[in-house]
C-alpha cells in the first residue's frame, strides 16, 4: 500500500481521535490533517498540496460536509480527489445526496475500533484498485442500509 495524505473534516474530538486510532492500526504510512469545520477544509485545500483522500463528516460547522463535497467536485483543481463521507447519519436522503454529489463512498461511523479498521481497509483497498466512483450498490461501506430503488 502507498502512503496516504489524508484530510478529515471532523469537529468532534472523540470521533477524530477514534478515526486516527483506526488509521494507526492499518499497516500503511499516512499523514492525517484535521479540519474542524467546512471552512478550514476548503481553506486547507486551497493553500496546501492536495491530499490523496478526503473524509468529510456531514454535520460540521460553518460549511457542511455536503457543501465541502460540492466545492471539491465543482473545482477542476480538486475534483479528482476521492471523497469519503464519514458520518453518524444513516438516513437515505443524506446517503443519496452524497452519492449524487460525487462522493466515492459513504461510511456510517462504526461503533467499535475493529469495525472501523475493517471498513477503512475496505475503502482504501477499493480506492487503490480503482479510483472511479462505484455504483450505488457499493457506495455504502459496512452498513445495513440498502440503496435499491
Structure description:
Residues 5-124 form the Response regulatory domain. Keywords: Phosphoprotein. InterPro entries: CheY-like_superfamily, Sig_transdc_resp-reg_receiver, TCS_response_regulator. With 149 residues, the chain is of the alpha/beta class. Helices cover 40% and strands 18% of the residues. The protein has helices at 13-24, 38-47, 65-74, 92-101, 113-129, and strands at residues 4-9, 30-35, 53-56, 83-87, 105-108, 140-141. Helix 1 (13-24) packs across helix 5 and helix 2 runs parallel beside helix 3 (65-74). Mean pLDDT is 85; it is low at 143-149.
Distance between the termini: 35 Å
User: What best-fitting shape do the alpha-carbon axes yield?
Assistant: globular
Query: Beta-sheet strand percentage?
Result: 15-25%
| Weakly predicted, low-confidence segments | 143-149
Features of the shown structure:
TCS_response_regulator; 149 residues; Sig_transdc_resp-reg_receiver; single chain; six-stranded parallel β-sheet; Rossmann fold; alpha/beta; Response regulator; CheY-like_superfamily
Question: Care to give the gist of this entry?
Answer:
40% of the residues lie in helices and 18% in strands. With 149 residues, it is an alpha/beta fold.
SSE arrangement:
Layout: E1 4-9, H1 13-24, E2 30-35, H2 38-47, E3 53-56, H3 65-74, E4 83-87, H4 92-101, E5 105-108, H5 113-129, E6 140-141
Parallel strand pairs: 1-2, 1-3, 3-4, 4-5, 5-6
Helix pairs in contact: 1-5, 2-3
Amino acid at each position: 500500500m502507498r502512503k496516504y495524505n489524508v484530510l478529515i473534516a471532523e469537529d468532534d474530538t472523540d470521533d477524530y481521535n477514534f478515526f486516527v486510532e483506526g488509521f494507526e492500526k492499518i499497516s500503511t504510512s499516512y499523514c492525517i490533517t484535521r479540519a474542524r469545520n467546512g471552512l478550514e477544509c476548503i481553506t486547507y485545500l486551497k493553500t496546501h498540496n492536495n491530499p490523496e483522500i478526503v473524509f468529510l463528516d456531514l454535520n460540521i460547522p460553518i460549511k457542511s460536509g455536503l457543501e465541502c463535497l460540492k466545492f471539491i467536485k465543482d473545482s477542476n483543481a480538486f475534483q479528482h480527489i476521492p471523497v469519503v463521507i464519514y458520518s453518524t447519519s444513516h438516513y437515505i436522503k443524506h446517503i443519496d445526496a452524497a452519492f449524487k454529489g460525487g462522493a466515492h463512498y459513504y461510511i456510517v461511523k462504526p461503533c467499535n475500533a475493529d469495525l472501523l479498521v475493517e471498513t477503512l481497509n475496505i475503502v482504501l483497498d477499493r480506492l487503490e484498485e480503482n479510483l472511479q466512483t462505484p455504483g450505488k450498490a457499493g457506495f455504502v461501506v459496512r452498513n445495513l442500509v440498502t440503496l435499491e430503488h
